[in-house]
Amino acid sequence: MKLYELTQSYNRLLEMAEEMDPEALADTLESLGDSIEQKVENTAKVIKSIEVDIMAIDEEIKRLQAMKSARRNNIGRMKVYLKEQLELVGMDKVKGTLFTVALQNNPARLVVSDISKLQGYLVEQEPKVDSTRLKNDLKAGLEVEGAELVQEKGLRIR
Predict the structure, then answer these.
(1) Arithmetic mean of pLDDT, 82-106
(2) Least buried of 18, 99, 102, 111, by fewest C-beta within 10 Å?
(3) What is the Cα 31 distance to its own chain's centre?
């Protein structure tokens, strides 16, 4: 296979990787007929390219979440303004051509002022493991029944 054909193959693979299931992706990589070194290098290129796409998507998500939050805040402020204005003029309801805006009673809200007087209403919590302390103790050589450190291998592309 010629170099430009390999580049075209990997470019097509990069485009297809977003829609492929892992088995189909592995089969496609296998069919390219490269040496193991070339497959590893080219697969790492595909991975890095996808990682860059993911970072761009994450940044866009953050930008859109900030825009969404700002708009929600604007809605909240406008609702408070409308409520205050209706209360100020003593009106409970305004019927317009498209919308009816009305004040209504919300469900009762619970306010706890002194938790120490509510012993009969307190709920037991599930125990929670202090993972950081446990891991540090195991690293320091302490033997803890019911827990162990497991060393695994992962793939790193630099």
Answers:
(1) 95
(2) 111
(3) 35
C-alpha–C-alpha distance, residues 103 and 35, integer Å? 73
What percentage of the chain reaches a pLDDT higher than 90?
58
Burial class (CB in 10 A: 0-12, 13-18, 19+), 153: exposed
Per-residue pLDDT of 36-89, as tens digits, reads: 677 778 778 878 888 999 999 999 999 999 999 999 999 999 999 999 999 999
The end-to-end CA distance of the chain, in Å, is: 27
Its sign, for the CA torsion 85, 89, 91, 93, is negative
Sign of the CA dihedral with 51 first, then 52, 56, and 62 last: positive
Query: Encoding tokens for residue 154?
Result: 């992962």
HSE (side-chain half, CA atoms, 13 Å) at 73: 6
Structure tokens belonging to residue 74:
């604007």
pTM score above 0.85: no
Alpha-carbon distance of 11 to 7, in angstroms, equals 6
Closest CA to 103 of 116, 94, 112: 94
Q: What pLDDT is recorded for position 120?
A: 86
